[in-house]
UniProtKB/TrEMBL annotation:
This is YetF C-terminal domain-containing protein. It is found in: Cell membrane. Belongs to the UPF0702 family. Residues 10-57 form the YetF C-terminal domain. InterPro entries: DUF421, UPF0702_alpha/beta_dom_sf. Keywords: Cell membrane, Membrane, Transmembrane, Transmembrane helix. It comes from Paenibacillus cisolokensis.
Length: 75
């Protein structure tokens, strides 16, 4: 069996938001819009782009969302 038969290439995740800033060029390359991204974030409990530290999408279309942690003075 050839090594190329043993592994299947999967593309790397694509960043969509970094440090609260939408990566519009990446959205455009994927054929997606800010409207689509906003709706996906809302479905995951995030209301604002600025609340997201990092967001990416993988080859299967699954989003990874890492939000900023809000400081809670009661803790």
């Amino acid at each position: 069996m050839a090594p190329s038969d043993m592994f299947r290439f999967e593309s790397l995740p694509v960043s969509l938001i970094m440090d609260g800033q939408v990566q519009d060029e990446h959205l455009q390359q994927l054929g997606k819009s800010r409207f689509w991204l906003k709706n996906e974030l809302r479905r995951n409990g995030v209301s604002n782009f600025r609340d997201v530290f990092f967001c990416s999408i993988d080859h299967d279309g699954k989003l990874y969302i890492n939000t900023y942690r809000k400081h809670n003075p009661n803790r």
